[in-house]
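Protein modeling request. Please complete all fields; requests missing the sequence field cannot be processed.
Requester role: graduate student
Desired output: 3D structure, token encoding
Chains: 1
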Amino acid sequence: MPAADLPLLIDAARIAGRVATSFVGPSAARWDKPNDAGPVTEADLAVNDALASTLRLARPDYGWLSEETEDDDARLSADTVFIIDPIDGTQNFVEGGRTWAISIAIANKGQISAAVIYLPSRDKLYAAGLGLGATLNGTSLTATRAGMAADSTVLAARPSFQDKHWRDGAPPVDRHYRPSLAYRLSLVGQGRFDGMLTLRPSWEWDIAAGALIVTEAGGRITDRTGAPLRFNNAHPALNGVVAAGPPLHSALVERLGPVRTA
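Delivered output (262 residues):
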């Protein structure tokens, strides 16, 4: 199935990229979602519509979970489900940046089987199929084997390095940041950075595609406690994410502690 589905995802991502780049980020109509859920633009919705038209027509029996589609419990009875983030990094898109991504994944019985993350403004297309490896623009990817060290590079927002999250304080690593969670995961699979983490609850559509890219590149990904990730949950959120090559992943998870309020 991954071999059959992956070309579909690649074609759909490129179509969606053309739709997204037809909008000029700063001038695209935008508004804020309820409950401080962040911004959304007319480009997000147009990309969502383009992906739905392409993917659901090709695989009408697959379920559908997208950040920009009202959730439907029907997906829970489907063995295979599309998991979509039309534009991950919407704020960066609005600001006219280039670090936003289209994230498309397929989950089969809770496990990601095919994935694409596409950054149209950077001409980067990451792809992975279960058992098929991970690629960037057709070139194979390998995650690093770095351990915990001062020069190990980890992508994370600043709050994740507050001492309250860690046993014996934040780890001695070189922290970096990129606005798109999907892109951060892709960069770990690429070996450009040694690891990434987010300790906040994370929506499945932000993580699903990148999770397969990391593992097919030889990395490891779990929730913040070290538990395996499972997708297409009734509440589609994960308990944080830690992704890295195996040595660093183990070191980060071992050092993480339960959340403390002070």
